[in-house]
Write a structure and sequence with these properties.
The two termini of chain A are 27 Å apart. Chain A is mainly α. In chain B, the strands form 5 sheets. In chain B, strands 5-6-7-3-8-9 form a 6-stranded mixed β-sheet, sandwiched between helices. In chain B, strands 10, 13, 16, 17, 20 and 21 form a 6-stranded mixed β-sheet that branches. Chain B has 2 domains: 196 residues, 3-Layer(aba) Sandwich (Rossmann fold), CATH 3.40.50.300; 131 residues, Coagulation Factor XIII, Chain A, domain 1 (Distorted Sandwich), CATH 2.70.50. By secondary structure, chain B is of the alpha+beta class. In chain B, helix 3 packs across helix 4 and helix 4 crosses helix 5. The chains are: A mainly alpha, B alpha+beta. At the A-B interface, strand 1, helix 2, helix 4 and helix 11 of A face helix 1, helix 2, strand 4 and helix 3 of B. Strand 1 of chain A pairs antiparallel with strand 4 of chain B.
């Protein structure tokens, strides 16, 4: 058997018999945040196989009970595209001309948005699903989040495949920066996760948080240039530019089809901020975990 | 000191009954931990109670400590703190060595996936790699005895099969300290025996145990010492027999505080009614406590509403864990006796009380000659047996239910 992982609120002391010694007390384990962070990553590495097993478990379980399987990954994105293509072409709404044919524009936009929304949702979903295990067994909680990230990556990969026939059909050329599309997606996931993870400690206690996420993401989609190009002036322009998801959506899409993007520097800043928040979120999550478990009841 | 694996020092844990307040405290405590301002919380905040208080004990290598106590006495809370899932509010716990847990068997099982897939999942949750699991896979399936259905989805398993598989996986580990929560009484008798054998094997290899159980016989068999818990505190850590006795007398104290119902629940056909069952000592005085080896009588007071004859009386003695110890039937003894309307007592005298210290209950039944039930009283009375001569019993190491009278040669 492997050594027991060292979770928080425990200190690691070597002793003569080389038995790991843990010490639990009321004291906060945040005396050395760098050490705690090291422990979190050690645990993630040690339990990497568990993350993988959990990821494949959820994947298998999800599709074993379904005939249409992966179709359900495409369905929402395709539905959004069709609806907005219809609304635009029948001039129910009037959307400014886009850099690439409108259906492809909406398709790429909603693909990126779906990834962002899933990344915000995932940490709380993963934690809720893992609660029954976490409240009884000592498992690094981040493994469940990591397997959730795996799920997001898998789904975005499958969903991206739909771009191939659409781009071929509409004869849209790819920009030279097209491979950066995946970098853009990675930054989107990272930023989404950082927000989601930070909300877990409160969200695990109060269901209001998941409601807020739901409503917030609903609003956010229309406040980001997902189905329309970024407005150039006026109040709408300011509102859209305040949305942290705006640079992520615009830049990732531009990298695929345009090559350069006016929002690139903003995107950099958001991604750096996202990474810092993510690290902070990991620490907060670890520290809060025993408090969350004790309030879950037996 | 070097072979002490678990050291619990004045550990306390507070919980809150009101959900909203509890969540609010949770948020505040998290914030305090983050801001590094958490202190030992020796006082209760409004709405809180001590789920654990002043818990101190030590556990040495290879030792087995039992925890017994009523529901809500704080056993599971203590296990959770020992397992590092929740933090103590006061005091501290130091554990040397790897900690394992036979808790939540089958954690992470997905009902849609097959038994085989779930073995790997559950094993990974317990911290084992795929390769390590593969090495013991056949042992696991063999132990759980489910070769035939290992490739069927787990949701087609009976609950017994699921628990067996869970136990087989979890018990493959070889930790230094193993926490066991009420899981040894799973499956049928044959499987329970396998579980015990597995536990003894681990104990022989030097694993220390902390076992939570409500089953006194289980604790008596396994444990070197048993801690009796009540209302969050350890009343006493003692030899299993003594601890279990303390547990039972606490239980009785609790029961006797409840008002006695005006009429005990009983079934009656209408012509006979069991009024009361009581014990009498040799000299005829009523009692609720007898000693091992003593002579006493069980008396059954019945009321007859019409003249009846050829009645059969039956007394059944149960242990506190509801195991039937003995049935005393009157057979055809009262074949010719006429019971006239009114109250009459029939009794049975035991030459020597062959029960060991503990709590017992009696069930009384009256039937007709052909076995038709006329009256029945399920929990007619409870009584306790005390060790007549504790020294002798201690010296011979008598445990269990029955005192065996005989000699070695």
């Amino acid at each position: 058997m492997k050594d027991q992982s060292v979770l928080n609120h425990s200190t690691f002391v070597a002793d003569s018999e080389n038995l790991p010694t843990v010490h639990y007390s009321f004291e906060s384990e945040l005396r050395r945040p760098d050490k705690l962070l090291a422990v979190i990553f050690q645990d993630l590495w040690k339990f990497r196989e568990l993350s993988w097993v959990l990821f494949t478990r959820d994947l298998k379980a999800q599709y074993r009970q379904s005939y249409l399987g992966y179709f359900w990954l495409f369905a929402p994105v395709v539905a959004t595209t069709i609806i907005w293509f219809f609304l635009n072409s029948s001039q129910v709404v009037d959307i400014r001309e886009t850099s690439i044919p409108y259906p492809a524009y909406v398709l790429v936009g909603s693909l990126i948005w779906t990834v962002f929304a899933a990344s915000v949702h995932q940490p709380l979903l993963s934690f809720s699903a893992a609660q029954s295990v976490l409240s009884k067994l000592r498992v690094p909680p981040e493994t469940f989040i990591l397997s959730g990230v795996g799920k997001i990556l898998f789904e975005v990969f499958i969903r991206s495949l739909i771009l191939i026939p659409v781009f071929l059909l509409l004869k849209i050329p790819l920009a030279v920066t097209a491979p950066l599309f995946f970098v853009g997606l990675a930054c989107t996931i990272l930023t989404g996760l950082s927000i989601g993870l930070l909300l877990v400690p409160v969200g695990a206690l109060y269901t209001d948080v998941s409601r807020i996420i739901e409503v917030g993401l609903g609003f956010g989609m229309y406040l980001a240039p997902v189905i329309y190009p970024p407005p150039v002036s006026g109040f709408a322009s300011r509102l859209v530019s305040l949305n942290p998801a705006t640079p992520l959506v615009v830049v990732t899409r531009d990298w695929l089809t345009q090559g350069h993007s006016p929002y690139a520097s903003q995107m950099m800043m958001i991604s750096i901020a996202g990474s810092l928040v993510l690290v902070f979120g990991l620490i907060v999550f670890r520290i809060a975990l025993p408090r969350l478990i004790e309030r879950q009841g037996m | 000191m070097s072979d002490v694996l678990v050291h619990c020092d004045d550990v306390g844990k507070k919980f809150c009954r009101d959900l909203r307040t509890s969540l609010w405290y949770g948020l505040r405590d998290s914030a305090a931990d983050l801001l590094r301002i958490s202190r030992a919380q020796n006082t209760l905040r409004s709405g809180e109670f001590w789920a654990n208080k002043h818990i101190s004990f030590e556990l040495k290598r290879g030792e087995c400590l039992g925890l017994i106590g009523h529901n809500g006495a704080g056993k599971t809370t203590l296990l959770k703190m020992l397992n590092g899932l929740i933090k103590p509010d006061t005091g501290s716990i130091t554990i040397r060595g790897r900690v394992g847990a036979l808790i939540a068997l089958g954690a992470g099982f997905n009902p849609v996936l097959t038994g085989r897939e779930n073995v790997y999942i559950n094993s990974a949750v317990l911290g084992r790699t795929r390769r390590e699991t593969a090495a013991v896979f056949d042992d696991i399936v063999d132990f759980a005895d489910i070769e035939d259905s290992i490739d069927a989805p787990v949701r087609t398993y009976s609950s017994g099969m699921q628990v067996r598989l869970g136990f087989a996986i979890a018990s493959q580990l070889q930790p230094d300290v193993l926490l066991v929560d009420e899981v040894l009484a799973v499956g049928d008798n044959a499987f329970q025996k396998k579980c015990y054998d597995r536990v003894y094997e681990m104990k022989a290899r030097g694993t220390s145990f902390i076992v939570v159980s409500h089953n006194p016989y289980q604790l008596e068999r396994l444990c070197d010492r048993v801690a009796t818990m009540a209302h969050g505190t350890i009343l006493k850590v003692a030899a299993p027999k003594e601890a279990i006795h303390l547990y039972h007398s606490e239980q009785q104290k609790k029961q006797s505080r409840k008002p006695v119902p005006a009429s005990l629940p009983q079934e009656s056909s209408g012509n006979v009614r069991i009024h009361k069952v009581h014990l009498e000592t040799d000299n005829g005085s009523e009692t609720k406590t007898i000693s091992t080896g003593e002579t006493f009588s069980i008396c059954m007071e019945c009321e007859y509403f019409e003249q009846v004859s050829d009645l059969r009386f039956r007394l059944m003695v149960y242990s506190m864990s509801n195991v039937l110890i003995a049935t005393i039937g009157s057979g055809s003894h009262f074949e010719t006796r006429q019971f006239v309307p009114g109250r009459t007592i029939v009794g049975f005298q035991l030459e020597t009380c062959g029960l060991l210290a503990g709590e017992y209950s009696i069930e009384a039944v009256v039937t007709s000659a052909i076995g038709l039930q006329l009256a029945r009283m399920n929990d007619a009375m409870t009584f306790s047996v005390e060790s007549h001569n504790p020294k002798v019993i201690e010296q011979t190491g008598a445990t269990g239910v029955i005192f065996v009278n005989g000699h070695w040669f």
